[in-house]
C-alpha cells in the first residue's frame, strides 16, 4: 500500500524510507509503536495513513482495535476491505461498542460487525436481542442473523473449520438457552439464527420441534414452513434422510410448495431416492404440489419435474390424485417430465392410459417414444408388433434398443430350434423379423455354417435364403466355396447369385473350376444372374407381424 522508489540501475523496486519504517512497526512486538501508528492514521498525507493502517493490521493490541473501529467511517471502502481480509480481530473494540448505551457507538459496532464478522460476539448480541426492552433490539437482531449465516457459510467453505466449529457450538448453546425461554422474548431473529446454525442432531432442537408443549414449538414449525433461507430449507429436507424424523417437520416437506423449496427438494431427489427417503416419503398423506397446487410444477425444469413425479409416487396421497398428477405431467413441455410420467403410468392399464401411450409413440423426444413403445405389448394394445417394427430402423439407438427388447422372442436361437417345424411361409416371415431384430443373427449364422454337422451347415444356407440375408452373409458364403463339403459349396455358389459385388464375381469365376459339376453349374448360373440383374439390398417388410414363432 506504500509507494516505493526506483533504483537508478534498473526497474527493481526498493522500499522507500517511510515504507521501511512502517514495515518495522508492523513486525515489532513493542506495543509502544501502537500509539505512534494510531496518530499516523490521522496524518494529512495519504501515504502515511495507508502505511499506518497496514502496520496496525499486524498488531493485536486493544488500542489498535479501538483506533480502527472508531475511524471506521473515515476509511474508504477499499481500506475497509483490507481490514476485513487482514484477519485482525476486532472483538474487544466491537464488544465495547455494542455494550455502549450511546446510540451512535452501538450503531457503529453493528456496522463494523456486518463487514468484519466477529462470531464470538453472537452470544453477546443474543442477550441484547433477548432483552425486549432494548432500544436497538431490531437492528441487533438483523446483525445477529447476518453473523449466524456468515458463520454457517464459513463452516462450509472456510479453511478454519475446526476453530469455527467450536465457535458455533458456543453460539448454539447461547441461542439454545434463549430458545428455551422463547415465551419471554419471542424474538424471530434469535429463532432464525438458532435454526441457521443448528443441525437436526441437536437435542434441544429435536425436543422443540417434537414437543408441542415446548415454548418455541409453534414458532419453529411456522418458521420452517415459510422461510426461504437456504439453511432453513436444508434443515427441513434433512428430515428425509433421518432414520427417526420429526413428524411435524416431515409433514412440512409435503406442505411447502414455494419455488425456493421446490427447487432444492427436486434437485436433491434427482437420482437419490434411497430406502430411507422412500420410507419417509411413504409417511406423507398430504403433498400440496401434487394436489391443489400442481401448477407450481410447470415452473420447474424437466429434471426437477421428473424428481417430483417419482417422489409423489412414493407418498401415500392416494391413487386418484397420483393419476391426475401423472396425466398433467404427461403433457408437460419438458421431455424429462413427460418421460417420468410415462414410466410411472406403466402400472395403470385402462383405455384412457392406453390412448395416452399410443399418442406418446409419436412424441418428438426419443426417450419418451422409447418408453411408450416399451409399454405397447404389456398393455395388450392391438397391432403392437406392427407398430414396433415401424420404429425398428429409427435413427435413435434408444428407440432401436427398445423395439428389439420388446420383440426379444424373435431371436435367432429360438428361430433356429423351431425352423424345421415351421411352414415355408412361417420360415420366411419370422426369419425376416429375426434378421432385423436380433443383432446376433449374422454371427450365429456364420457359426452354423462351419458346424461339424453337415445338416446344420445346409440348414444355415436355407435360413440365409428365407431371411433374404444374402448380402449380410456374403463374406461367409464366399468362404464356404472353399469348404470340403461339395453340397455346401454348391449351395453357396447358388446363393451368391444375389450378391453382385466384384468379390462375389471373382469367387464365382474361381468356383467354375471346382471339381464338382454341381458347384460349377451353380457358379455359372449365378454369374449369369449377376450380369442380368443388379440386386438391391432387401428391406424388412414392416407389414409382417407374424406371431408364428414356435413356443
UniProtKB/TrEMBL annotation:
Gene3D superfamilies: Leucine-rich Repeat Variant. Pfam families: HEAT_2. This is HEAT repeat domain-containing protein. InterPro entries: ARM-like, ARM-type_fold, PBS_lyase_HEAT. SMART domains: EZ_HEAT.
Amino acid at each position: 500500500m506504500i509507494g516505493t522508489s526506483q533504483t537508478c540501475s534498473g526497474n527493481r523496486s526498493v522500499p522507500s524510507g517511510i515504507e521501511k519504517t512502517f514495515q518495522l512497526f508492523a513486525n515489532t512486538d513493542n506495543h509502544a509503536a501502537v500509539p505512534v501508528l494510531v496518530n499516523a492514521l490521522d496524518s494529512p498525507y495519504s501515504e502515511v495513513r495507508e502505511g499506518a493502517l497496514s502496520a496496525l493490521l499486524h498488531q493485536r493490541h486493544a488500542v489498535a482495535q479501538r483506533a480502527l473501529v472508531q475511524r471506521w467511517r473515515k476509511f474508504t471502502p477499499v481500506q475497509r476491505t483490507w481490514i476485513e481480509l487482514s484477519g485482525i480481530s476486532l472483538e474487544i473494540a466491537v464488544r465495547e461498542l455494542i455494550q455502549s448505551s450511546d446510540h451512535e457507538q452501538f450503531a457503529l459496532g453493528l456496522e463494523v460487525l456486518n463487514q468484519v464478522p466477529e462470531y464470538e460476539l453472537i452470544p453477546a448480541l443474543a442477550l441484547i436481542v433477548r432483552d425486549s426492552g432494548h432500544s436497538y433490539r431490531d437492528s441487533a437482531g438483523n446483525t445477529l442473523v447476518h453473523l449466524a449465516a456468515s458463520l454457517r457459510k464459513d463452516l462450509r467453505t472456510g479453511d478454519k473449520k475446526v476453530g469455527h466449529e467450536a465457535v458455533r457450538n458456543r453460539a448454539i448453546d447461547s441461542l439454545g438457552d434463549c430458545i428455551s425461554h422463547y415465551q419471554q422474548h419471542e424474538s424471530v431473529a434469535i429463532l432464525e439464527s438458532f435454526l441457521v446454525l443448528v443441525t437436526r442432531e441437536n437435542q434441544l432442537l429435536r425436543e422443540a420441534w417434537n414437543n408441542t408443549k415446548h415454548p418455541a414449538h409453534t414458532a419453529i414449525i411456522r418458521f420452517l414452513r415459510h422461510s426461504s433461507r437456504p439453511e432453513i430449507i436444508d434443515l427441513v429436507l434433512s428430515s428425509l434422510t433421518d432414520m427417526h424424523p420429526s413428524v411435524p417437520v416431515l409433514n412440512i416437506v409435503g406442505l411447502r410448495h414455494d419455488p425456493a423449496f421446490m427447487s432444492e427438494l427436486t434437485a436433491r431427489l434427482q437420482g437419490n431416492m434411497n430406502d430411507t427417503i422412500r420410507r419417509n416419503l411413504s409417511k406423507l398423506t398430504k403433498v400440496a404440489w401434487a394436489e391443489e397446487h400442481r401448477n407450481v410444477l410447470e415452473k420447474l425444469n424437466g429434471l426437477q419435474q421428473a424428481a417430483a413425479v417419482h417422489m409423489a409416487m412414493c407418498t401415500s396421497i392416494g391413487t386418484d390424485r397420483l393419476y391426475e398428477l401423472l396425466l398433467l405431467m404427461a403433457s408437460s413441455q419438458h421431455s424429462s417430465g413427460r418421460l417420468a410420467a410415462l414410466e410411472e403410468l406403466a402400472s395403470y392399464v385402462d383405455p384412457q392410459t392406453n390412448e395416452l401411450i399410443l399418442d406418446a409413440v409419436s412424441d418428438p423426444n426419443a426417450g419418451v417414444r422409447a418408453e411408450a413403445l416399451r409399454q405397447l405389448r404389456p398393455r395388450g394394445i392391438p397391432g403392437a408388433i406392427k407398430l414396433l417394427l415401424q420404429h425398428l430402423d429409427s435413427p435413435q439407438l434408444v428407440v432401436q434398443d427398445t423395439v428389439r427388447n420388446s420383440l426379444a422372442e424373435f431371436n435367432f436361437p429360438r428361430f433356429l430350434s423351431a425352423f424345421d417345424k415351421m411352414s415355408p411361409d412361417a420360415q420366411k416371415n419370422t426369419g425376416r423379423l429375426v434378421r432385423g431384430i436380433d443383432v446376433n443373427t449374422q454371427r450365429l449364422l456364420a457359426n452354423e455354417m462351419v458346424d461339424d454337422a453337415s445338416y446344420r451347415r445346409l440348414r444355415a444356407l436355407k435360413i440365409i435364403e428365407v431371411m433374404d440375408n444374402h448380402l449380410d452373409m456374403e463374406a461367409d458364403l464366399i468362404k464356404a466355396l472353399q469348404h470340403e463339403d461339395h453340397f455346401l459349396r454348391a449351395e453357396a455358389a447358388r446363393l451368391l447369385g444375389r450378391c453382385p459385388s466384384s468379390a462375389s464375381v471373382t469367387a464365382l469365376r474361381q468356383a467354375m473350376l471346382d471339381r464338382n459339376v454341381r458347384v460349377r453349374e451353380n457358379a455359372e448360373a449365378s454369374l449369369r444372374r449377376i450380369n442380368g440383374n443388379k440386386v438391391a439390398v432387401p428391406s424388412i417388410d414392416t407389414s409382417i407381424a407374424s406371431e408364428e414363432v414356435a413356443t
